[in-house]
Amino acid sequence: MVEYGDIRVVYRGGSKINFRKPVISNDSRFLLCASGESVKVFSSVTEECVHELRGHTGQVTGVLLRPSNHLQVYSCSTDGTVRLWDFTDGILVRTYVVGYPVYSIYASLNHKEVVFIVTPVQSDKRTELFQLVAVNLPQTPDQLVEARDLSAVLSDVSSNPSTIAFGRGGEYLASVNNLKMEIYFFKKNKSYSFSLREYTKNGGKNTFTCIACHPKDDCVATGHDDGKIRLWRNFKQKKEYTYSTLHWHHSAVSSLCFTPEGTNLLSGGVESVLVQWRYNQENQKDFLPRLGAAITHVTVSPDGALFSTSHSDNKITIIQSCVKVSAVIQGLVKGENVTTGLLVDPRSKALVLNGRPGHLQFYSLQRDKLLFHLDIVQQEYIHEAGLEQFEVVRAAFDASGLWLATVEERKQKSAELELNLKLWSFDEQTQSFVLNTTVSAPHEARITAMCFSQAADSQTTTLVSASRDGHFKAWQLGLPAHTDDEGPSWSCDFVGAYHGLVPRCCCFSADGSLLAVGFQEVVTVWNPTSWELLTTLSQPPGDVRNLCFGQLSCSKYLLGSNNKKMVCCWNLLTCSLEWSTSMDVSLLLVDSRSENMAAFCCQDGSTDLFVFKPSEPRPLFSQKAVCSGRVIHAVFTPREVMLESSEESSQWLNRSQLYFLTEFMDLLTFSTKAEEEKLMASSKQLVIDDTVAMTPFYLLLGKHRHEHLGNEESAERTPLPQSSVAIKELLQTPAHVLPATSFLCSMFAKSLLISVTETREENKHVDEEMESEKEEEDSDEEVETKISRPEQEAKGVQGGESTAPTLTKTQVRELRRVRKQDLSWITGLLDS
Amino acid sequence: MASFKPTQIPDLPKLGEKITEDTLYWKNYKAPVQIKEFGAVSNIDFSPVSPHNFAVTAFTRIHIYGPFSQEPVKTFTRFKDTAYCGRFRSDGQLLVAGCEDSVVRLYDVGGKAALRMYKGHTKAVHVADFTTGRYQILTASDDYTCRLWDIPNAVELTAYQEHTDYVRCGVTSKLNRDLFITGSYDHTLRVFDSRTEKSVMTMDHGQPVESLLLYPSEGLLVSAGGRYVKVWDLLKGGQPLVSLKNHHKTVTCLALNSSGQRLLSASLDRHVKVYNTTNYKVVHNFDYAAAILSLGLAPDDESIVVGMTNSILSIKHRKNLEEPKETSKPRRRPSYRVFMKGKNFVPKQDDYFVSKPARQHLAKYDKQLKRFNVSKALDTALEAWLRRKKPEVTVAVIKELDRRGTLKNALAGRDEEQLSRLLCFVIGNFFDTRFTPVLATTAEIVLDIYQCVIGQSAVIDRHLIHLQKLLEKEIYYQKDLMEILGMLDTMFAFSLLRKESVDQIMFKSKMIKYEPKQPFIVKLTTN
């Protein structure tokens, strides 16, 4: 990325986890999925990310368990390498350099140390042709291995990984592309191809979309564009093949998968229903409906206990044996366009934007985790292509986070637009937003801007919405009009217009005493209490695009940018233009914690950033070419801990962070060197237990456990009696062979007593001798050293003397007696 | 796996009058009891002591009714001419009344003949009242004078000759025995102090004054005359506070409810209006059959008594809350055992819990929608009960089908009976503005689908012709409304041109805006 001093632009969070099929480990405890340039290892129970396997420099395009070692995993990437990882420890084992971009990876048990990869055909770069290549992986202990032993298996394959599958443990390989299916038998070294006509008689499209091979039987299942599934059999001959058709899906089947025993076939598609077909009894099927979004991949764990489905809304669902959803791993949902823009919830400091259709998502930036989805539309979503449904298009929070306003709209083909304005209040008890008021058709046309009065102390907050119908409306919380209504609800307080112009943006001043509404070329300033038009400011030509008031000491300034490449700053005390400059600002935003403002300027394909104070002529910070493409949304988020950076250029990042979204839906932010160092230091401190996810709860408990472990070491606990030979014998011998209980009792009791050490156990008789007070000097010393331990114990309990004084023989004897008596409860104490 | 989200039935705005606490309070009266009197009922006065009988002055008689009686418990008939203003003393023992023959009579409530007669006025006496000292009577007459009389000796104490027209109303102060106020047809209100010879305060009402009312705190005075009700601040030397013009005929009578929070005014326009005394807005309105001359409110607002020009006395009693409960018999419910079965079972330590997922309850049409049975969903939504009682549910289902893009499928393939049911519903609710957008698209689709079968069924054809007629009518209405709107616009535009007048209007509206703020201050000072 671009470097500038010690501030640099970094990708933050929300990479795709539904890009490729996830992989479930053999013991069903982990789920691995490709996510951007790394592989993420999730716990399938807690949904937490346990490891992130970093190392690839390109997009990871496939993850595959190593057939010969189920604790290792292959990953391939467009950077031309295949890497072998130990995913339980998160260690890179080996890197194989292939040299060509890899689009998918396959392996089977039959082919030891060979992986099959899909690479583009080198000869022709213009057409998108791909071939399946077998790669021999050389067995060397080196970290970096060149794997140049390539042999082409199939040409003309699709780059989509779900179009190739191994059948019957690797006997054959089936691949589909468009209208052709090709099955390659390794032993015969011969391939058969089958093709279909493009359209069926009743107009269904026959194009292949995915394939799955039965693990035990000679059967290949293929999915088609028109929702049909075909089961092919007897394909060892070219002529006498047969197929049967299953049809439930109404649109393309996107993924197919057989369970490991081959008893069931799973399929999924746009309908977001997981269908389970019984193999050989295809009229029996089970459904798991309403999984949330279109299914893109279906996988089964090697033991068949867990299914997982990837969805188009960047989500992986883990399902227990086709009946119960046990876990949902959700990433940041980035739809086609972020209509609501980026917002920050003042309460949770989470990033808020529209997620799945009809929902708002709350995304924690600190933890890089999706917190929850808030259902705005509250309607059943129909998974059907080409259907106009309600979308959340605007959202706004008030300063305290008590109120959330959302606008949803549905554009019908012929009839007029349907609009709903909803106001949500935060409920302390349930810790979520509860619908308070629904205003249907608040405006006659689309709402262009919406904002809350930002004054935190005022009791009544005002919402202003501006619309293309030429009006802006102020909404206020009022007492119930009807006695049978429960609580206060929102109603329209004022409707404003200015010469029939269309308002494009609105903004409240920091103290809520002024409202600025941009009517095309004119900025009008209103008094929100009396709704008087105070003044109009205009600086033609050009429609006002962004408006914002200065903060803190610069609150007397109002800034606006227009579409004719001008930025103007008005002084509200004198109502005159303070300064203006020629700049094509696409986005102007203000940091609520400081006087700083940020302006993103779009210039020939890349975006520049300027951070400035309205009162100062020189920008605090500027960076050319922050990213390629336009920045469509940006937001300042307050930091939890203030940074103490003294350098002038990075001071603006001390109190808040700047997040922005490019037109390619990348979420980026600025980070300083100091911050990164801090992060690195903290990550080094955390030594991750390999099975348990790093959660605050774990940190708390793990620390405690470490202490506990330390205690045990210092106390040097003797092995538990279970391990002693006598007990083992006692427990393992059948009861009818054992002698009488009374006989065994003393032996059993003795074995329960904790001897000092194992070495001590060997010379038990010495102990007995000591009791008869006949000891040699050396054994005495030995005793002393050993006794010091329980003495330390006692010290621990009493918190008394500092050093162990040398003991006389009588004292030693006394102590030993005490020890023999009390040992049991001390161990009890230790155990507890 | 998310559960199925049922169809949303929108909470549509309720049409018609808004229900407020006031409407609930003032509507909580039974159907009125109507009693025919001998002539126009000119005055109603409630006895200040329990059981709160009330004296009704009508023509030459004064009837005294008990709180629930429909027959008078007592009658005073010894008047030579029309009697006026029969009023009780504060102990409820004595009653005074003026008369057309200028003689004021004093009665014992228990007796029949007049105890005393006060002669001195030269014309009809329309006002007679006791002072708070209990031993004096105030009278005011059409001879422009008002006089104070000593009760036992029947001697005139003072006479004030300041009014220049008939004196038709007067009140005595409840707190000060020397203070009384009279209102006259010379448009003035005068405050008198019996210790001085002249009036101490004069206010100009602007219309002949018909009625006067003092607030319990006696800081505010309400006067009614012409179409206006005016409130005066006595503590500020008779400054006008509010002028209310809510009636379109002369206001004849004023009353205050028991809490002092609501002011009632009765008028010849047959209405009784209830005002909120904090902002002086009308909160409720009663309609009567004839012009109202007198109004009385029982203590605790137990009954509202209104006397009218057609000599009918209407008494409304407050409803008791307990009564309606007796009518509904408690239904026999399943026994306690049924509900408690297995509920008090305490699981043992080793028991394995099988959690049963709570079943989502769905309405019938939602069950069909869940299964994508669109036609059946529409059928269930068009069931007779839903169609008639809850049209919003049916409309919501149609809307949901439209959203799913399957409305056409749901509407198609219907037989005559189903189609006529659908058309009935569309016709019945087409002009409800809340449903029009949805039903218009429905009607369009229906016409598109079934246009080939028009003429095959008489029933359907009748419905379609009906719908067409309705539409033509509606278009005609809309045209008219648009014309009116255009006319109004030109008028407004014209009025806006004359800027001066606009400024004046602005100024006036500001004045009105500021006025209601003052009662708050007064209240603070008086309480």
From TrEMBL, chain A:
The keyword ATP-binding does not apply. One of its GO terms (biological process) is positive regulation of transcription by RNA polymerase I. Residues 784-794 have a biased composition (Basic and acidic residues). GO terms for molecular function: RNA binding. Residues 760-813 are annotated as: Disordered. Residues 342-664 form the WD repeat-containing protein 75 second beta-propeller domain. SUPFAM superfamilies: Quinoprotein alcohol dehydrogenase-like. Residues 768-783 have a biased composition (Acidic residues). It is found in: Nucleus, Nucleolus. Residues 800-810 have a biased composition (Polar residues). Keywords: Nucleus, Repeat, Ribosome biogenesis, rRNA processing, Transcription, WD repeat. InterPro entries: Beta-prop_WDR75_2nd, Quinoprotein_ADH-like_sf, WD40/YVTN_repeat-like_dom_sf, WD40_repeat_CS, WD40_rpt, WDR75. PANTHER family: WD REPEAT-CONTAINING PROTEIN 75. This is WD repeat domain 75. It comes from Nothobranchius furzeri (Turquoise killifish).
UniProtKB/TrEMBL annotation, chain B:
One of its GO terms (cellular component) is nucleolus. InterPro entries: U3_snoRNA-assocProt_15_C (IPR018983), WD40/YVTN_repeat-like_dom_sf (IPR015943), WD40_repeat_CS (IPR019775), WD40_repeat_dom_sf (IPR036322), WD40_rpt (IPR001680). GO terms for biological process: positive regulation of transcription by RNA polymerase I; rRNA processing. Its main location: nucleus. Residues 345-490 form the U3 small nucleolar RNA-associated protein 15 C-terminal domain. Part of the small subunit (SSU) processome, composed of more than 70 proteins and the RNA chaperone small nucleolar RNA (snoRNA) U3. May be a component of the proposed t-UTP subcomplex of the ribosomal small subunit (SSU) processome. This is U3 small nucleolar RNA-associated protein 15 homolog. It comes from Nothobranchius furzeri (Turquoise killifish). The gene is UTP15.
